[in-house]
Amino acid sequence: RYLHFCKLPGRVMGIRLLHFTSVVIIVLLLVAGALTALLPNIKDDKMPNLRREPKTQSQSALDSFTLIMQTYNRTDLLLKLLNHYQAIPHLHKVIVVWNNVGEKIPEETWNSLGPHPVPVVFKVQTVNRMRNRLQNFPELETKAVLMMDDDTLVSAHDLAFAFSVWQQFPEHIVGFVPRKHISTPSGVYSYGSFELQNPGFGNGDQYSMVLIGAAFFHSGYLEDFQRQPEAVYTLIDETQNCDDIAMNFLVAKHTGKPSGVFVKPVDIRNLEKDTNSGYSGMWHRAEHLLQRSYCVNKLVNIYDGMPLKYSNIMIAQFGFPNYANHKNKM
Amino acid sequence: RYLHFCKLPGRVMGIRLLHFTSVVIIVLLLVAGALTALLPNIKDDKMPNLRREPKTQSQSALDSFTLIMQTYNRTDLLLKLLNHYQAIPHLHKVIVVWNNVGEKIPEETWNSLGPHPVPVVFKVQTVNRMRNRLQNFPELETKAVLMMDDDTLVSAHDLAFAFSVWQQFPEHIVGFVPRKHISTPSGVYSYGSFELQNPGFGNGDQYSMVLIGAAFFHSGYLEDFQRQPEAVYTLIDETQNCDDIAMNFLVAKHTGKPSGVFVKPVDIRNLEKDTNSGYSGMWHRAEHLLQRSYCVNKLVNIYDGMPLKYSNIMIAQFGFPNYANHKNKM
After folding, report:
1. pLDDT band at B215, cuts 50/70/90?
2. In chain A, which residues have their Cβ closer than 8 Å to the Cβ of B34?
3. Per the CB < 8 Å rule, is A165 touching B313?
4. Does residue B166 register a pLDDT over 90?
5. Helix or strand or coil: residue A179?
6. B positions 188-227 inside 8 Å of A (CB)
7. What is the CA radius of gyration of chain A?
8. CA distance A274 to A69
9. Is the N end or the C end of chain B the one with fewer CB atoms within 10 Å?
10. Which residues cross the membrane (chains A, B) (predicted)?
11. Which residue in chain B is spatially nearest to A156 when comparing CA positions?
């Protein structure tokens, strides 16, 4: 009895200790919740993909970009473009996505004509797929990716300026080719360019996509692309098209902002006619544009909504090409 | 003894309770510290001055701006400009800073020609000072301020677009007139425009200031201006100049970024010659530009460093005025 009586307060104490410990734990949990709720906001707004970058990066890798160029049936043009691009400022490495399945890469020619300013890696593909260029390549060491179609030439000046713009807008696709979707009364979306206009939108134009065939974007988005619904890959593979539209959906979803920032190019050229293969790009196919409208509507279904947002911002370099372009001289 | 013995665990329990309570308190303190350390970062980066805005704001006040126009010796021009500007989109209120000391405000004429779309407040000044326009006016209810010189006309389209740009860059001065400083080998700074170039800067041009005589900026910066070193006010008053340079120093110091974002105007006009007063602006004075270089060097001494940073970004509206301006048609 005596002992029993005296143990009582002990038990009470035990219960109270338990009670206080749980208070501490609950507080810590709430707090952890609050903190993690705050932190992503900062990251998401500033550098969306930094946290998904385990690679430790050299200083040069931080202030430079990797050129990713997919090539098919235009090796002569590829070699020309490699010569053009291999000396542009801030270029860290070139990754050539070799879609000429079963065909030998031009490594011998390339090496016999060395030395070259930056390493060029040929990534031999087993299937000729549009989305091969959207892999998260292990050779990719920079945060910045410059993706170029294998028939497009952009001046070193435009690239240097666009890269400096990307460094200020790292969560966006910063590029030279804007496009847009418009919604029609039937609720069906249509894909196009300056020939389309949303009803009642007044002065000027808008864009809701920036094509990745001539653009800078964050390498983290290549990681994100690996985690998309299977239906997205099927859509891209069955059309051999729209991988760039899908990337704009992905970025718009990630940021909640317009996916792209349009930089007005001073000198951009299509070299397609320079190839001896006579091969002309997929976009010449009669169904190309209809396919892209089709893709926009499909992607809206897959992602259960339209994430694309409109922008009307066009960025050009101040004082270039003429020092007086801040006067009304356009 | 028996009682005494039985009280013992009680005391022990008391001590442990005390211990656990203090744990909870310390945890909460650490956490509060962590949270407050995080929160300002977000604000500083996004909306630098929101926290300095006690005024509760109507929805219209959030999506609109206040036009602040300082006038001296050009009442005829003022009335013309008021008619031009009183109907521009998103205009919430007009504040006229009346520097015609001792002269009657044109309230009668104004009211006799009503009704007017938005309220116009005449702020009668007792001294004719350049910096009168940089007061934190109690009538100011919007976050956005549009400051215009009393001889400058900018198209409604340019203003609507620039306002939409400011909403995306609220911590910057978003305006139509870029200027820059350059450093000379002697370490002396010089003030100018496109005629000056930093040695070895290569293609294009840069700016480090956007003049507030035709610009949007955050009303919080008017509050900041009231807290500057006395020497700044003295400099502005003795030169009757450079208040706009001082504002660029202030914003650059606050953001650690370029103070301004330059929006390329499509239609901006100087109406100075339209005044019957024959009065021509201060900037016609022979010493005007030399004074401004003088001010830059003075401000560097006052603020103990050069906060101004360069930008080469020029923003124009996509697809305006011609739909094909994303091609190389400049």
Report:
1. very high
2. 35
3. yes
4. yes
5. strand
6. 194, 203-207
7. 26
8. 17
9. N
10. 20-42
11. B203
